[in-house]
Amino acid sequence: MLELRAIRQELTSLRCETRESLPPPIVHPYLEFIIRGILQGFGTVVGATVVVSIFLYILAQIDFIPIVSDWIQMIVKEMQIRH
Length: 83
Description:
elongated; mainly alpha
């Protein structure tokens, strides 16, 4: 029980030291939120693009299923027309 109290006290002192040793913020906090939001949006778009590309590539490889094959060919033609 004493060890647990000692560990808690040590963690509390480490938290206080960490807070005191942090440098002051370089940019205004609101600017940080704006930049973080922009980067998160960019990452989401890039990730979705990769996932959709892989999904369409896999679908393009499935030509041997008759029902799905026609639907996939329509999707591939539509994507080729748009690009």
